[in-house]
Request: fold
Amino acid sequence: MAEDESETAWPDISGHIHEGRHVLPVRVYFEDTDFSGFVYHASYFRWCERGRSDFLRLAGIEHAALAGGVHNGEPCAFAVRRIGADFLKPGRIDDILEVQTVARASTKASITLSQTIIRGAAPIFTLEAQCVLVSFSGKLLRIPNELLARIPQLSS
Amino acid sequence: MAEDESETAWPDISGHIHEGRHVLPVRVYFEDTDFSGFVYHASYFRWCERGRSDFLRLAGIEHAALAGGVHNGEPCAFAVRRIGADFLKPGRIDDILEVQTVARASTKASITLSQTIIRGAAPIFTLEAQCVLVSFSGKLLRIPNELLARIPQLSS
Amino acid sequence: MAEDESETAWPDISGHIHEGRHVLPVRVYFEDTDFSGFVYHASYFRWCERGRSDFLRLAGIEHAALAGGVHNGEPCAFAVRRIGADFLKPGRIDDILEVQTVARASTKASITLSQTIIRGAAPIFTLEAQCVLVSFSGKLLRIPNELLARIPQLSS
Amino acid sequence: MAEDESETAWPDISGHIHEGRHVLPVRVYFEDTDFSGFVYHASYFRWCERGRSDFLRLAGIEHAALAGGVHNGEPCAFAVRRIGADFLKPGRIDDILEVQTVARASTKASITLSQTIIRGAAPIFTLEAQCVLVSFSGKLLRIPNELLARIPQLSS
Reply:
């Protein structure tokens, strides 16, 4: 089965975007919890990164392509520059959660995404992340217009 | 949205069992890779644990229920006792992989699962895990017959 | 070798506190990096948690004791309620970093810690974390006076 | 403080080798545990990787140098090819453990390391790992003689 067939076989694997809002389901496994019985605090950051990756993927921006230098001739990746986060309720083993992602602001210098993790209808974690584009040699890059133009906008 | 509605909304979230073989898709994210550019070796163990969890879940055995003492009156969890693993090919960022899980042997003392991670049709990692049931106070427990009876058997 | 002997054998294992400032060294390993070649963003949160744990440990507050209900009769653990973080420079494989931790504010409701990760003399990451005490059944607890009294204060 | 000064400031940071046996202390933190209250199974693999890295480091083989192509002109890293592991006793939060590493066999094709994690005098986990050298483009490389010659041998 080739890559394209995998995506056909698992149509939800990257979540879905609707009116500029991306939703990705995540399951809470052993690896995500700690001895307190709740979700380990850094797991929420991992899940939000998955949400950001699939938000960009569905917009046609893949890490492998950035790393291959496709977009601006230089191997690069998005990196987090600043994060603010609120832990509202604890997640637990076996929970099914949803990571919601929307774009707040996009400039040549950075993209700011706002993310909420919900269980059922209840938010349990919120995050705002300012992301920048960094070359593999460590330089801050301008985000090319062709990438900025692909970022889905929230229809409010 | 309640838990049951989440499972309805994301029908693939726990993978699928067909003729005793469980399949769970996983995406390779930032968190799964390391500076070599490939998948970090311990990520394969995390993915296989997800596969084992969902294999058991679809058989009606949930971690939260075990932790709640539902099955044998004592809070407990499955734990790995022995692992053998072969790393055949490197996984890479953005890959969609599938974790396949089958039961090899089930006794009152342990359950042995055989797992293969594939990309397309090619196996990239294989693992055999012997799992035991351990109480939260650290005692080895017999696996109740009602649990053993639920373990799907491979139709060969 | 008993636990006490381990601490004698490795005198730096929990870092050191000097004038209210705790310092813990961390090495960057495979597990901490991602395919970009730099440190994975959530690794900084794991390291800062290690710093907070050892800051409290050297103040005589151990997770195992909290989990055993020693301090207030109820099994509990510190949990993060809010985090703000700035990623200043990328960490790299083999780096030796230092996590610095100081207490900013301590009340019956929460303890706020300010943390900086440095490489050589240069800060590469800063974090402010508001921490609360949560019972294993999920209740927010008052932080006992005897614990608050132990929190080292920065001599400014 | 430069890198060399960091190593001076924290003389135990890479553990120690004595008569061919490397020992690295590790502390059990939140990140290493799961909801069962014990250490998460894949944490042992992360710790053993730290032990292997520092075993090689003290032998004069650094990841950053391999990645920079210093040893054989091609960016490369050691990768695990095969692992066998036994989980003997559960680790717990706050434990101080020691990762012991010795070389079993070294050829141009692979290096096999034998590792034991102990708490006090008691082994809680054992692992045997066969490691190979892989270029960043994915090719299996011969291990240069100058590297093989540096691998400490166990004096039995």
In short: Strands of chain A lie at 16-18, 21-27, 76-87, 96-106, 111-119, 122-135, 140-141.
